[in-house]
Specification:
The protein is an alpha/beta fold. The chain is built from 15 helices and 10 strands. 48% of the residues lie in helices and 11% in strands. Strand 9 and strand 10 form a beta hairpin.
Length: 401
Amino acid sequence: MNDFTYYSPTEFFFGRGVTDKVGQKLAARGYRHALVVYGQGSVVRTGTLDRVKASLAEAGVKVEELAGVRPNPEIGLVREGIEIARARRVDCILAVGGGSTIDCAKAVAFGAPYDGDVWDFFSKKATIAEALPVACVLTIPAAGSEGSNSCVISNDDLGMKTGVNSDLFRPVLAVMDPELTFTLPTFQTGAGVTDMIAHICERYFSGVGAVPVTDNIACGLIRAIMDAAEVLVDDPQNYDARANIMWAGTLAHNDLAGCGRSTNPAGRAGGWESHALEHEMSAFDPSIAHGAGLAVIMPAWMRYVWREDPQRFLDFAWDVFGLEPKDGREPSIEETVLAAIDELQDFFARQGMPTTMGELGLTPEDVDKLLPTLAKNKGEVFGGFKKLTMEDAKAIYLSAF
């Protein structure tokens, strides 16, 4: 087990009806003026936003609003939120939504105290030094942004999608009511569980050998997510399944599943190759849901790199799917590894996820357009499990058609 630092300061307020107590929780922390950030309509249609605002009003918390966050949130709206936060002198940012909304809120939070343009942080021209407190009411379990130190934002003008990490903008409070997820469409649920599993796999396949405690947490989370997701296919309002998925999404990305797996004690485990490859896809076409892109590209990455450490993939095959070689011969090892990857992709497909790049609306001719920004974001060579060149990246993309 490698050295590590684990930090998870978020207060998680989890259960039925907790949405109606968000005002009370914020007021107890001394916050009196919130910028409420939300998306493009679902929290309005379902009444969740009204419940949140009523709770804030009852607790004496004044409200400003930033509406219209899209999937793959864009820097333009972040800049609008920063102007509101500064002009109205809010003392906290409250996201009501999923990962995109929370990431937009985080960017507003660390952009508001900064004198320059917030994109400076994403282009690595500046380092985050302070941030307004962030809280959230989670409505879409997926990204784990409610407990993570991650923030990913798109810049349509530059055709880029990139992220920053800092403990300064980890949410101080996450309000998590599984009943809010009862009405999620099957596609959104499937994209969410795919993202969760990808967060775990990025850490599991970090290029570090076995770390039994962390590996058992990781594989147990994957099995729990898959079991709950299979229940929801036939029973979408099953509270226990929704609750297990919601909590698993948090644990998948608050770094618990990576403890002892990083080569840098202060850094996140893994090279995050699949996320890097997918970010270019959804930057190129923002209509591509992040989870849907991962459902295609992560199995393709696995098939390309597994020979770098076959034992790691055999451990994954056994601990997640109960698959093992019939003997120690190489053909049997290969069959087992590929069978496990197929099982994983078949699970994604049962959740309504695509299996090819073509299903995402991309063509082989588009691949060369993804590589320049990938190199700009990650460098000409990147990766933790296996170092990838731009030629490797191109091969992985093309293998997914």
